[in-house]
What does this fold into?
Amino acid sequence: MKVGFVSILGLPNVGKSTLINAILSKKVSIVTSKSQTTRDAIMGVYNEKDLQIVYIDTPGLFPGDEALYQMMEKSARRSMSGVDVILYVIDSTSKNYSKDDETLASIKSDAPIILLFNKIDDVRVEQMEALLAHYNEKYPNYEKIQISAKTNFGLKDIKNAVVAHLSEGLPYYPEDVITDKDKPFMAKEAIREELLRFLKDEIPHECAVEITSYEEKDGGIFIKATIVAEKEGHKAIIIGKGGDMIKKISMSTRHNLEKMWQSHVTLICRVECVPGWRNDPRKLQKLGYGREDN
Ligand SMILES: Nc1nc2c(ncn2[C@@H]2O[C@H](COP(=O)(O)OP(=O)(O)OP(=O)(O)O)[C@@H](O)[C@H]2O)c(=O)[nH]1
Ligand SMILES: [Mg+2]
It folds into this structure.
């Protein structure tokens, strides 16, 4: 059978997580309209008869100042070592090519790079022509595929292009393994997704979530989580008037987890203020960021 590893890279918000979910027909990675949603490398395994492709979704390549962003960038760059193919996702609706040019130039890998022009459902013909002209001139030897991760357009072309670069081998994972992340990780991400959805501006970006207790008992799943905020003011906003906001976030997360797991979920969230957590390596480690396996 054909087997291999494929890293999905690109700037923040270009649709990398939407793509891995579309390829797997399963949600392994959270998606929001905000940049820097994904903070960890997340593996998703695609199985077909005589084929296993291990995709790795990564944090957007973004050189931020805080230790958290540096760890996220490191995690994305680590994910390109030893892979068979790199899928570099480009947001076709963006007219600024320079950041992608800079980032592509910084990728040091022997793996073939396939450029995926995403969001073509949302782009005008003239803009698409200008974009293709730029990349055809600058990267004549890279394969290029136009896709829409949102509408599943081009997924078959991606698979065919990837398979052409894979070798024969034994599967890396049993067929029932879909991701390397466990349920507590998924719960943490589901809470982060709702924080990003309900809260404005920098607040969700300055939050982390720690799952302090996870138990499966009596046919249900019981989760306790702490939302870590940077500032007391943020903590107050996350809690909301009379606890309104935290209630909304918890209920919505619980609903999403129950839908995903088809199981009854009890979720208790509390909010804590930990100033400077994004720049403190020990606190980052405690919150699960910056480990070599991420
Ligand atoms: N119109 C359109 N929007 C898309 C498409 N793919 C993704 N999006 C949207 O783009 C936004 C970002 O998607 P994500 O999948 O979270 O992007 P990402 O690259 O994983 O972002 P980070 O994790 O922040 O690096 C979301 O609002 C998606 O719905 C697409 O094919 N077409
Ligand atoms: Mg993402």
About this structure: The two ends are 28 Å apart (CA to CA).
